């Protein structure tokens, strides 16, 4: 949305209807499950407006939980047991019933969040946190979320000083850290971002993360 989206507040409710941008089959292109066949459930709305965000999440439609699960089942093959709940910002909406129903159906569930919101989710849900910078440092990660994070993914830019280094958000040594070159839609900048992310990974022991779906030309 490149920062043009409205900043939305967290929603209450029973989670039996959610604002859905899209549901689609693809490969997980980022983070700990990179390369896995997956079903993505992209939720609408976000509580931040990042200038580099390239994702459309504001043409969402309300969808009942049963219809969401029916769509997932229709898209699922024997090779697709990973569900990625993304956005927008997934914790903006009451996703607890969706996560529970997916786990009960035998799926592995992963969420990607910016780290500023939290809801109590089943322990089996994997949470990848991609912290965002305010311009005065990274948003602090909520303590209740920090205890649940399975991995951090930091966007890296060689030119944007807000994203040129890894911020300390409480990750310590226990949580794996992935560094992902920021896609700035400029070939020269992207080459510099890749080199900078590679250097950081080599120097600090981070894990280099490329956007596999863009390399493969899929959604």
Number of domains: 1
Number of strands: 9
> What is the end-to-end distance?
16 Å
Q: What is the CATH-assigned architecture?
A: Alpha-Beta Barrel
Supply the helix-strand structural class: alpha/beta
- Principal-axes geometry comes out as globular
Task: Give a structural overview.
The chain has 219 residues and is α/β, with parallel strands linked by helices. It has one domain: TIM Barrel, CATH 3.20.20.70. It is built from five helices and nine strands. The protein has a nine-stranded mixed sheet. The longest helix is centred in the last third of the chain and has 18 residues, at 187-204.
What are the SSEs and their pairings?
Blueprint: E1 17-27, E2 37-43, E3 61-64, H1 65-75, E4 82-86, H2 96-104, E5 108-113, E6 126-129, H3 143-146, E7 149-156, E8 177-181, H4 187-204, E9 207-208, H5 212-216
Parallel strand pairs: 2-4, 4-5, 5-6, 6-7, 7-8, 8-9
Antiparallel strand pairs: 1-2, 1-3
Which key terms come to mind for this protein?
globular; 219 residues; nine-stranded mixed sheet; alpha/beta; TIM Barrel
Summarize this entry quickly.
This protein is of the alpha/beta class and 219 residues long.
């Amino acid at each position: 949305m490149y920062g043009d989206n409205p900043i939305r507040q967290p929603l209450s409710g029973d989670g039996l209807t959610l604002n859905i941008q899209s549901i689609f089959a693809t490969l997980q292109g980022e983070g700990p499950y990179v390369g896995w066949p997956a079903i993505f459930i992209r939720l609408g709305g976000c509580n931040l407006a990042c200038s580099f965000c390239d994702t459309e999440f504001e043409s969402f439609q309300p969808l009942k939980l049963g219809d969401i699960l029916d769509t997932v089942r229709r898209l699922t093959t024997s090779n697709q047991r990973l569900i990625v709940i993304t956005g927008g910002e997934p914790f903006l909406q009451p996703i607890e019933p969706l996560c529970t129903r997916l786990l009960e159906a035998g799926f592995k569930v992963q969420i990607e969040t910016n780290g500023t919101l939290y809801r109590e989710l089943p322990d089996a849900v994997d949470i990848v946190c991609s912290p965002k910078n305010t311009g005065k440092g990274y948003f602090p990660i909520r303590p209740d979320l920090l205890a649940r994070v399975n991995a951090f993914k930091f966007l890296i830019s060689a030119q944007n000083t807000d994203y040129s280094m890894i911020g300390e958000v409480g990750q310590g040594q226990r949580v794996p850290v992935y560094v992902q070159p920021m896609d700035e839609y400029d070939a020269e900048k992207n080459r510099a971002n890749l080199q900078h992310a590679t250097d950081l990974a080599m120097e600090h022991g981070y894990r280099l993360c490329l956007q596999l779906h863009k390399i493969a030309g899929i959604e």
